[in-house]
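Marked as duplicate of an earlier ticket. Keeping the data here for the record.
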Amino acid sequence: MIYLVVGISGVGKTTVLNKAREKLPNVKVVNWGTLMLEIAKEDYGVESRDKLKFLTPEETRELQKKVIQKVKDMGDVIVDTHLGIESPRGFIQGIPSWVARELKPDRLIVVEAPPEEIARRRAKDKGKRERMEESVESIRMHLDFDRAIAASIGYELGIPVKIVVNIDLDKAVEDFLKAFD
């Protein structure tokens, strides 16, 4: 089984996932961006995850093809990733429909939080990541973009899309784990 766990930066996706792993000790977790970076370092000399968004669309597609194969070879896995990545050219789909069709996930779990909370979390993270505009409105737009992609993937593949709201971590983890029932 392949589970896609998605959310924009600052939503607490990885925090929820790490805490949920205590109840899912036999499930492997892999970060899509980390796999992309490992390959991009070798193939294109990319030095950080934040620089991946500057690759050409063709280079990005080639990387995605290689990551799809790596993930499929892992068996049962949770893939920690982003659906939309903000770039100077606009939003880039982290998991475009062709990737979702090839990957064939069994579930899609979207972790969200209120835009104001995400802005607060990101403010604490300043300097660690290169991000586009940090306004509450831009965060809201990014959340809306991700929801649209999630709905599209769920509809196209006929898979459940679970939305987990991460305001209270324990409640978010409890809700997250329901996707595995």
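See parent ticket for discussion. Residues 136-157 form the longest helix (22 residues).
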